[in-house]
Design a protein that fits this description.
It contains 16 helices and no strands. By secondary structure, it is an all-alpha fold. One of its GO terms (cellular component) is membrane.
Length: about 425
């Protein structure tokens, strides 16, 4: 399945426009993903935040198998528009949770059992919508770029999108102090308005061939997964999801452990936001730099280098765990932000390099990253010993480093894979 490319000599502004929409939309979602485990736990809903994120990413992974078929039927900007409703729905659950908490109601819709069901169901809907969003997004960027400019375009997108970590956490820092209910209300509104902005994207997409059946799509996914080129990438995709799981479901624990036991939860939450703001700043820097570097340096070498940055992040995190140093949490956040955007960008760029015009490859990326995120999030709940969790991430990093080093010696050409 292919689309005609958008007209025009330079499409930088189109990549920037898409990145800006994602910036505002994910200022809401990323901020909530970073804080939801902490906020729900403080509201006496135990691990509901982490469980909902696990449900979201599990649904994301499963539904990504069918996402290419949906994305192939419609213009990507419309797919992204409708997909945004899932994010708005998930964020709105926070309004219900804190309405119940603030009014001290624990029966009916506010009973713990029903609230769990509502939040988890909305998380699943969000996960399904995320699968179509994240298959359509790289397909849109691919359509407006060439192989020579692809890294730069993806870099522009990721730099703007990951700046949501800065904007979202600054908003969180201010709004959570006023009221968690107000925080979720504002974030839900921002996410909803951002979703409608997808309709403003310039687009002249036309289907160039018939849409394949689900059976043919599944066969296409199997063929790509079985190819020699894809094998090293599978672990790299998993690695990308592991990074997301670390800073959304575990980094806050390291920050909390570095704070005095008698410190107020309000101040602890504020200090967590400071670290995530730094994480966002380095996400932006990484996006800009990785975009230009990947168009000028061997992309497979950059992928291998990204695993080394994660190794440094892990070393600092382990030292932070033992020393309970808040200063090291900032360094850890900076390294995780750098590696997250770099790895996310490189998985996109390399995928489009190895599998041009094959939307199924984006689905495979979404499946592996979401599966990794859900698995590592549930590990963060089930494994009480934090050092064991850190060692598991170290093991994944070492395997990924070995795997990415083989990318450059793959001998198959992109057009050797036929669906």
């Amino acid at each position: 399945m292919q689309y005609k490319k958008l007209e025009g000599q330079s499409n930088y502004w189109k990549a920037a426009m898409l990145g800006t929409i994602f910036l505002f939309m994910f200022s809401s979602f990323n901020s909530a993903a970073n804080l939801i485990a902490f906020l729900y736990k403080e509201a006496n809903y135990d691990d509901l935040g982490v469980i909902s994120l696990f449900s979201l990413y599990a649904a994301f992974g499963v539904s990504s198998v069918f996402a290419p078929n949906i994305s192939a039927l419609f213009n990507p900007k419309y797919v992204m528009f409708f997909s945004s409703f899932g994010y708005t729905l998930y964020l709105s659950c926070g309004i219900i949770v804190f309405q119940c908490k603030d009014h001290g109601v624990q029966d009916g819709i506010c009973s713990k059992g029903i609230l769990y069901i509502i939040v988890i169901l909305c998380a699943v809907v969000n996960g399904i919508c995320a699968s179509t969003l994240w298959v359509s997004q790289p397909w849109y960027i691919t359509s407006i770029s060439t192989n020579e400019t692809r890294g730069k375009y993806f870099g522009i997108f990721w730099a703007l999108m990951q700046s949501s970590q800065i904007v979202g956490n600054v908003l969180g820092l201010v709004l959570v102090q006023l009221s968690p209910l107000l925080y979720f209300l504002v974030m839900t509104i921002v996410c909803g308005i951002s979703g409608f902005s997808f309709l403003l994207l310039p687009s002249t997409f036309e289907k160039a061939q018939e849409v394949k059946s689900v059976k043919e799509k599944l066969r296409g996914i199997y063929v790509i997964i079985s190819s020699r080129k894809m094998r090293p990438m599978l672990l790299y995709y998993y690695f990308a999801g592991t990074i997301v799981a670390f800073y959304t479901g575990f980094l806050y624990k390291l920050i909390a452990a570095s704070q005095p036991e008698d410190q107020s939860q309000e101040l602890t939450g504020k200090r967590q936001a400071y670290v995530f703001i730094i994480l966002g700043v380095f996400e932006f820097i990484s996006g800009i730099c990785s975009g230009y570097i990947s168009d000028r340096v061997n992309r497979y070498m950059v992928a291998t280098a990204s695993t080394i940055i994660v190794e440094l992040a892990l070393i600092v995190s382990i030292i932070s765990y033992y020393t309970e140093s808040y200063t090291l949490c900032f360094i850890s956040g900076a390294l995780w932000g750098t590696s997250d955007c770099l790895v996310a960008n490189m998985t996109m760029v390399i995928t489009t390099t190895l599998f041009p015009d094959q939307i199924e490859a984006f689905a495979i990326r979404a499946i592996m990253t979401s599966f990794a995120t859900s698995v590592m999030l549930i590990f963060s709940i089930l494994i009480p010993n934090q050092i064991i969790y850190l060692l598991i991430v170290v093991f994944i990093e070492l395997l990924t480093n070995i795997s990415t080093s083989k990318l450059g010696v793959v001998n198959e050409k992109p057009n050797e894979i036929r669906l």
